[in-house]
Amino acid sequence: QKEVEQDPGPLSVPEGAIVSLNCTYSNSAFQYFMWYRQYSRKGPELLMYTYSSGNKEDGRFTAQVDKSSKYISLFIRDSQPSDSATYLCAMSDYGGATNKLIFGTGTLLAVQP
Amino acid sequence: GAVVSQHPSWVICKSGTSVKIECRSLDFQATTMFWYRQFPKQSLMLMATSNEGSKATYEQGVEKDKFLINHASLTLSTLTVTSAHPEDSSFYICSARNLETYEQYFGPGTRLTVT
């Protein structure tokens, strides 16, 4: 079993839809959770960063962390064609045994105009 | 958001030569930087973790004598690919972790082609 599981997609939605991206993990020591967006041939861009459990909102993006279920989500409201990219979840126990980011495999999202 | 730069963005070199890639955190200090490699349509593969003022920690299977890493300051890390071969052609991405917030930011990547 991989430490972090992410549905690779591809996921295709119409413009304006609400997108839900999810990851599950197995290491209960993870406390730092991030979502990155990566366009083709570019470095990943940090979208959301959450420490421990809870929700965080930034514009059209909402990140949720449920440590009891070992489940994290990223919601994108009013999706736009410019949101078309690969979305990577990542997490770590920084300072602990792992001390580095563990990535999901990424979900390819296409928002159709 | 914080900015991490990489230079060069694209480099072509001949087999047997060495190539140096620079990674800089422009507006924050990073005691820890990371070097990744990414093949087309695949996720990021961590190569090594670089700590300022100390030796890098390499992931299993990564040749430390081939991929030399130096982290001389809180804002600069370099990766040197020595005696490059065509199989080293790839997309190399650095990342810097903010020492205060633990947020980890990525550079734009360097595309290396070895002919």
Number of helices of chain A: 0
**Which runs of chain A of at least 5 residues are low in confidence (pLDDT < 50)?**
none
Biggest sheet of chain B: strands, sense, closure? 7 strands, mixed
**SSE topology string of chain B:** EEEEEEEEEEE
Summarize the structure.
With 113 residues, chain A is mostly beta strands. Chain A is built from no helices and eleven strands.
Question: Would you write up a description of this structure?
Answer:
The complex is a heterodimer of chains A (113) and B (115). Chain A has strands at 4-6, 11-14, 19-25, 32-38, 45-51, 54-58, 61-66, 71-76, 85-92, 102-103, 107-112. Chain A is mainly beta. The model of chain A has no long low-confidence stretch (mean pLDDT 93). The mean pLDDT of chain B is 93. In chain B, strands 2, 4, 5, 6, 9, 10 and 11 form a 7-stranded mixed sheet that branches. A 4-stranded antiparallel sheet of chain B has the order 1-3-8-7, with no helix packed on it. Chain B is mainly beta. Chain B has strands at 4-7, 10-13, 19-25, 32-38, 45-51, 57-58, 67-73, 76-81, 90-97, 104-106, 110-114. Classes of the chains: A mainly beta (113), B mainly beta (115). At the A-B interface, strand 4, strand 5 and strand 9 of A face strand 9 and strand 10 of B.
List the helices and strands and how they pair.
The complex is a heterodimer of chains A (113) and B (115).
Chain A: E1 4-6, E2 11-14, E3 19-25, E4 32-38, E5 45-51, E6 54-58, E7 61-66, E8 71-76, E9 85-92, E10 102-103, E11 107-112
Parallel strand pairs in A: 2-11
Antiparallel strand pairs in A: 1-3, 3-8, 4-5, 4-9, 6-7, 7-8, 9-10, 9-11
Chain B: E1 4-7, E2 10-13, E3 19-25, E4 32-38, E5 45-51, E6 57-58, E7 67-73, E8 76-81, E9 90-97, E10 104-106, E11 110-114
Parallel strand pairs in B: 2-11
Antiparallel strand pairs in B: 1-3, 3-8, 4-5, 4-9, 5-6, 7-8, 9-10, 9-11
